[in-house]
Amino acid sequence: MSDPDQGLQSGRTQRWDRVPELGGPSVPGRPPVPPRRVAEPAAVARDQHAEPATAWHAPAPVTTVVPQQHPDPIWDAADSADDGEWAFAWEDDDEWDDEPVRQRDPLWRLLVRGAGELLVTAGLVVLLFVVYEVYVTDLLNDRTQGNLAEQIRDQWDQASAAPENLVAPAVGEPLAILHVPRLGEDYSRVVLEGVSEEQLAEGPGHYIGTALPGQQGNLAIAGHRVGKGSPFLDTDKLVPGDPIVVETAQNWYVYRVLGDAATGDYTTDASGIPGQQIVKPDDVSVIAPTPGAAGAAPSGAYLTLTTCHPKYSAKQRLIVHAALDGDPVSKAEFPDGPPALTEG
Fold it and tell me: Signal: present as a keyword of the record (predicted)?
């Protein structure tokens, strides 16, 4: 039997007709086999401490495969004469050097700026305080007065039907209800015993030791003009002859501002007591039993209202004097108030 490999140039492993996948000449009756594509080896990074490869040493071990990177091209004048020259390295530019360096503000300017900011802050605080005193406290006082009105009327409902014998209540407790038609048809304020800020924050206060409603002497009542309900805000609008009505458990007491109702003159009353006057804060003679006559015995039954003057200031005091007009009006006969309550 003849050798099938006879006539070949090399051994079995080099026969192209048996290993066609390695490429080679075409075999009759078969399509040509394309040569195998061998991928280009990637660049490798070798250990720097490895020994160099020699004929008798193995190559250094591969530690990391680093993909080949192509540096970005550098634009040069040779490529374009119109655009100028570009390179990666930054070159000095005169425009950057000419930028001014910001200087630190001098001390006096810092002080002025700080003082201005402090004044603005202080102004806002003062403004908020004024808004609170003028408006917010009025809203709060309305609720307080409503509670006091319920309290005093509950006390009156529980009182006996015996003839009224007024006694000053404890400090801070309701004494009576003040009605001033000139200041509004529904104007009414509960009067508390005492004139400290604690009482005046809730409503008008009765000067301790002065006369009670309807008694001989001077029923003196103080109240804020602005804020805390502003009970005496428009007291200066009272004119001679205006009624001021004080309500108690069983009676209505009507006082009238002193002066000539026809002419509006406050100084014409026979008693010599003016219906309205402006005094200093330390002038306490206005709440004496006979107003303006400190130490003198009572010469009648008077009512005095005191408040700050002018508005939004406590520099002076606005005083209104009134005298009792007739006998008390029984609430049994006039439960809704005397006729004078509808004047004004």
Answer: no
Give the single-character DSSP code of 73: P
pLDDT of 141-167, one tens digit each?
889 999 999 999 999 988 766 678 899
Task: Look at residues 24, 5, 292, 336 and name the one whose alpha carbon lies nearest to residue 179.
Answer: 336
Residue 266 lies inside a defined structural domain of this protein: yes
- Pick 335 or 31 by higher pLDDT: 335
Share of the chain above pLDDT 70, in %: 69
What tokens were used for 198?
Answer: 């604690």
Q: Which residue has the higher pLDDT, 87 or 211?
A: 211
39-69 pLDDT, tens per residue? Answer: 555 555 555 555 554 444 555 555 555 555 5
Q: What is the value of pTM for the model shown?
A: 0.66
Whether 308 sits among the annotated catalytic residues: the reply is yes
Options 49, 57, 179, 308, the catalytic residue: 308
What confidence tens digit (pLDDT) does each residue in 215-274 have?
Answer: 999 999 999 999 989 999 999 999 999 999 999 999 999 999 999 999 999 999 999 999
207: domain range? Answer: 130-158+172-342
Domain membership of residue 326 (yes or no) is yes
Q: What's the CA gap between 206 and 192, in Å, rounded? A: 6
Nearest residue to 302 via CA among 179, 197, 220, 191: 220
Identify whether the C-beta of residue 45 lies closer than 8 Å to the C-beta of residue 63.
yes
Three-state SS for 71?
coil
Contact of 300 with 323, CB cutoff 8 Å: yes
- Residue 107 in any domain: the answer is no
Which of 238, 247, 235 has its CA nearest to residue 266?
Answer: 238
Looking at the DSSP assignment, which residues form a beta bridge with residue 296?
none
DSSP-derived pairing of the beta strands 217-222 and 301-309: parallel
Do the domain assignments include residue 204?
A: yes
CATH number of the structural domain spanning residue 144 = 2.40.260.10
DSSP assignment, residue 218?
Answer: E
Does 224 participate in catalysis according to the annotation? Answer: yes
Per-residue CA distances from 319 to 52, 122, 208, 278, 311 (Å): 115, 34, 18, 6, 13
Options 206, 224, 309, 321, the catalytic residue: 224
Give the chain's domain count. 1
